[in-house]
Amino acid sequence: MYQDSNTTKNKRSQPLVPIKHTLTARFLQRSKRFLVEVEANDETFWVHTNNSGSMLGLLHPGQEVILSVSSNPKRKLPHTLEMVRLGGDTGFWVGVNTLTPNRMIKAAFLANRLPEAAGMEDIKTEPAFAHGRLDALLTGPEGQIWIETKNVTMVEDDVAAFPDAVTERGVKHLEELTRLTAEPNTRAVVFYLIQRPDGHCFAPADYIDPKFAEAFYRAQDAGVEMWAYQSILSPAGINLGERIPVKLREK
Fold it and tell me: To 10 degrees, what angle do helices 210-222 and 168-180 make?
């Protein structure tokens, strides 16, 4: 079917991961790992955040935040922290929902926005394998691609970096992906979604977690592919931006 360029452009400008039923609020404080207090419409209340990292440099009292509102009556806290705004009215949004990369990899694959996955025909989310689960599995006539996704919210000197806190789980994922590269017709990938606009290349945060950085380079040397993508954020949702360079091990 013929499709004009304007139609294609409009589709690409729409968020691949929309955020529905949103509420704008002001951040007050974070309690423990998964609770955030906010203020909206002269009312203070607690909301859920699924981001277990430190969110280093992101949370400041009084800053604007975006919440999604769940319609699930069984949820104790109906609101989830989605984005925080850095730099006030002249700043930019940072996406902090750690489920977004999982949703993005599926949406981007189904929209044919991942040239690295050419030839793959199907996607399965949260697939089980011998040692647990990963975030996605792509399959096609030529083999399979196992994918683990990571949400990146920290940038230092234009370099997007992960993790923002020590992560034994992240090291384990890299080790498992390294083992998978030894299987026939199998590729292994970590998909890093940079959920802010000021990161123009990616590197492991060795100054936060040197064990993760070493596991990152071992995995890279073994053939694990590191896909780092910028995202395009707005209160309406998140779109996939450009792929950015990834740091290699220094010789």
Answer: 10
